Amino acid sequence: MSIKKNIILGMVTGLVGMSLISGGTVAYFSDDVSTQNQIMSGTIDLGIKNTSDSEGFYFNFKDKKPGDIFEKYTFQLVNDGTLNIGKLFLNSAYESFDKDDKPNDFGSQIKIKELKVNGVINTQLTDRTLHQIDAIKNKANSPALLITDIKPNNNVEIEVIFEFIETENQNKYQGNRLDLNWTFEAVQEVEESK
What we know:
- Keywords: Membrane, Transmembrane, Transmembrane helix.
- This is TasA family protein.
- By secondary structure, the chain is α+β, with helices and mostly antiparallel strands.
- It has one domain (about 45-190): Immunoglobulin-like (Sandwich), CATH 2.60.40.
- It is about 15% helix and about 35% strand.
- The protein contains 2 helices and 9 strands.
- It has helices at about 5-25, 130-140, and strands at about 45-50, 75-80, 85-95, 110-115, 120, 130, 145-150, 155-165, 175-190.
- The strands form 2 sheets. Strands 1, 2, 4, 5, 6 and 8 form a 6-stranded antiparallel sheet that branches.
- The longest helix is centred in the first third of the chain and has 21 residues, at about 5-25.
- The N and C termini lie far apart (about 80 Å).
- The model has no long low-confidence stretch (mean pLDDT about 85).
């Protein structure tokens, strides 16, 4: 290779090196700030008040006979969560047994004479036997709606009166027992899509 070619190649290499060095040295001011952030979901928390009973029942009625109207039982459900409860449902289920602990139809003899939610009669449950309520629930495939729109820290007062209905021959119901399970289900408020 000639000296002339070596000099040109050296100059080109030097120019490329200088352009790389000068292109990488840009000065500018900068600053940054950091923040710490958190996202928390709200809670649906349904509580119950005024239900203390030494035997662990919300209501416990004994020695009832056909024609008896039970004393009114009142308790409160409360939204202990941070979100609005959109709907509150009651799922009623029972098992009934004769005096020999064999399953029977005692639920057809016990009626909700009146059920009020915040002073308003619930027509879906009032004046129906527990058997009828169970049949309606199974047909509709959903529990009974009690109330809508419960804000956090607000109470819902439930008043219920039961009746042992009177029909002609009810001797087979002597000594019977009915185990009633009420499950209250709170569902969050769902906003309509815009």
